[in-house]
Amino acid sequence: MTIPLLYNQEGSIAIITLNRPEKLNSLNPEMMELLERYVNQIEEDPQVRAVIIQGNGKAFSTGADLNAIPLDRANPITTEQFLRRWYRSINRLATCSKPSIARVHGYVLAGGLELMMACDLAVATLDCKIGDQHTNFGLIPGGGSTQRLPRLIGERRAKWLLYSGAWVTGQIAHDWGLVNEAVPTEKLDQTVLSMAQRLSEKSPFGLLNIKYLVDRGLGVDLDTGLDMEVRTASRYFLSEDCQIGIDAFLHKDQPKFLGR
Q1: Is pLDDT above 80 for 259?
Q2: According to DSSP H, which parts of the chain are helical?
Q3: 109, 157, 191, 214: which could form a disulfide with 153 (CB 3.0–4.6 Å)?
């Protein structure tokens, strides 16, 4: 039986691969269960320093497998339970302490877009098709689009994509700040791997603290965020990784961080 979500590790980089190419990697409950399991495994593995999320076949993902969504008007709680399970899995990725990169190509639609946005970074092919598209089928988002999309590209552009169901290319997504890089297809793997390798050389403890400050800071006012940064940085300066970095700078050496 084919495993719909694959996990492997190349050195310090974990790779999670959506593996339903015949269904354009539409997401089902088994995949969401595996996603949460893999992220928990990544959290517990000190050897993993960065994570890549990608899709096999012609698409990253076209979103949820609609055949898997329970729609029972007599028992609406089943739909809510399904969506909360979906939210829990995607949010587990979003809160992972290891930096994550979405490697996207082909179609990145609806739940596929929501999965991409849960990653810290994203790299797309120039010609890939990215959009929310829920409204094209009388649906509304349930996996984060209404909240993450405006935070990434601003209210006006987010509302247009959410209201219209329109798709944009990888190039436009890059121009709007929805992805970090848009590259030709033949350069996608090289670009993503280079980014992951660069991140894997940084202090895991330092990146964890930066991610905490950025993510939490988006939900508070500027003064509160700046105070959080001062308090967090003060504690971080006492860490082993900080001392390793300072020693390497003073001795013109390459630091080898321990993650603590």
Answers
A1: no
A2: 29-44, 77-94, 111-118, 145-153, 155-164, 170-176, 188-200, 204-217, 222-236, 240-250
A3: 157
Structure tokens at 55: 């899709």
| Most distant pair of Cα atoms in the chain: their distance | 69
Report the C-alpha gap between 185 and 177 in whole angstroms: 19
Best CA proximity match to 161, nearest among 108, 123, 120, 119: 108
CA atoms within 13 A on the CB side of 119: 27
pLDDT, mean of residues 156-167: 97
Q: Among 84, 81, 98, which Cα is nearest to 41's? A: 98
In the three-class reduction of DSSP (H, G, I as helix; E, B as strand; rest coil), residue 133 is classed as coil
**CA–CA dist 107, 175 (Å, integer):** 18
* Dist CA 59 CA 24 (whole Å): 5
Residue 133 CB-density burial (10 A; 0-12 exposed, 13-18 middle, 19+ buried)? buried
Q: Does 5-200 carry CATH code 3.30.530.20?
A: no
Q: What is the pLDDT of residues 12-34, one digit of tens each?
A: 999 999 999 999 999 999 999 99
- Residue 256: pLDDT band (50, 70, 90) is confident
By the 10 Å C-beta count (0-12 exposed, 13-18 middle, 19+ buried), 255 is classed as middle
Rounded CA gap, 34 and 89, in Å?
Answer: 9
Sheet of strand 181-183, all strands in order from the earlier edge strand to the far edge: 5-10, 13-18, 50-55, 100-104, 121-125, 181-183
